[in-house]
Amino acid sequence: MSIELISANKSFGxxxxxxxxxxxxxxSDTVFGIYxxxxxxxxxxxxxxxxxxxxxxxxxxxxxxxxxxKLAAELGVVIVAPDTSPRxxxxxxxxxxxxxxxxxxxxxxxxxxxxxxxxxxxxxxxxSELPAVIExxxxxxxxxxxxxxxxxxHGALICALKNPGRYQSVSAFAPITNPMDCxxxxxxxxxxxxxxxxxxxxxxxxELIADAPERLPLLVDQGEADNFLAEQLKPEALEAxxxxxxxxxxxxxxxxxxxxxxxxxSFIDDHLRHHARALGRL
Amino acid sequence: MSIELISANKSFGxxxxxxxxxxxxxxSDTVFGIYxxxxxxxxxxxxxxxxxxxxxxxxxxxxxxxxxxKLAAELGVVIVAPDTSPRxxxxxxxxxxxxxxxxxxxxxxxxxxxxxxxxxxxxxxxxSELPAVIExxxxxxxxxxxxxxxxxxHGALICALKNPGRYQSVSAFAPITNPMDCxxxxxxxxxxxxxxxxxxxxxxxxELIADAPERLPLLVDQGEADNFLAEQLKPEALEAxxxxxxxxxxxxxxxxxxxxxxxxxSFIDDHLRHHARALGRL
Lengths: 282, 282
Known about the structure:
Chains A, B: It comes from Halopseudomonas litoralis. Two copies of one chain form a homodimer. By secondary structure, the first copy, chain A, is an alpha/beta fold.
């Protein structure tokens, strides 16, 4: 798998880079961002934190706005940020151009319905294909963690819950906890996965947590002034599901904070330390 | 002067806000961003760091990308980011829509030539009008510092050099040090100020430094991999002018860093501390 460098910017002694490659899984070119801390120049392979962004984002939002590089440089953690959907020629979009479905809104599932199933396979991309690319091309170990925001928080939770042993730690900012029971999820799952709600359960954190074979502690931050809190995000559903399953969850409700990257930036260092401890960097 | 709140996002315990007001100086509405650290809720008035952005930017780039809020929240320093030019109905732009002149490129001068002179008065806006608005509407003191990037670094340097006693400290990232002697400056000064190069001298840091009545130490960071270094920025001209004048200058050349916000973010904390010391917050 050959990867093509798009840009490189020195950042906190390391490098922020973007690469393009042909994704077999997505049937399209795709771009990812990677932060390589200064320790990447040394011999010891570094662990990787995968960051999954939310609706409308691409690989750049987190790298521009979260302010994660400073602490990542201190901790020696690589950060990888994929795009949020397939893109490019032949990739279908929401017929009405909505921002909550289609391009920029892959929901980290493998679509089973047409016309989506040919390209919208962000789950396989994020869990398998991209880590293989990263581990083949950069000085990294197989120690992985995963986090994300909103739709990407949902993605981080389901990737971890469905893949015991694959991640050392997981966290989320304002995740869509229960897509089976919110408008964004209904639209996305209905289109990508079809009308059989039984099939949706394997992509819903609140459903998956009941039978999760691994009990990685979940760290979740949620702003209390988030406009999407009550209708779309539903942290109380995750809280109830975790309690019922006996799954460890630290849910931090942050007064006054909204859904923006200002919220993420304010607490990203706590998440980086959470992951660094699990990755043996703290 | 009434100001209208556009948005408010909680950030590191404080607030990132945007406001719009009718600028008499610019003859247009204008928008500024302000970061109010948590200490703004207390009784003691806080000092203000003014940040001047570069070509193509507006009031948001710095607040989104520099990662300054975390340390500003610790130090108790307010940050204010104005736009980079007048905008709106009736404000003329470069006739060819170029990015290095007109909208987004006010160069922090008071234009004397038509059709620019009616609106392009960013110098008066930044030095006088905006601080008056800030000091009338927020819990701030009259202790001010100024910094900026590229065109905004030029702006910060000339605002400080031309106004003894007005700022406690000044710094710049990759400033246009000698606009009289670079293509960006030739275009902007030629249009805004006319063809008399004598008149340009009062807007050029390398000229102003010779007779500056106040010797505020200049802190300047410059990336060595900056694409604009040799042709547009010319830190060696500032270095020579400061040496000739006996003006204190710390010019830090940063290997590998470019002209982007990744560069700014990597060193913004050093600048914040430089200003906080002068502002009595360290």
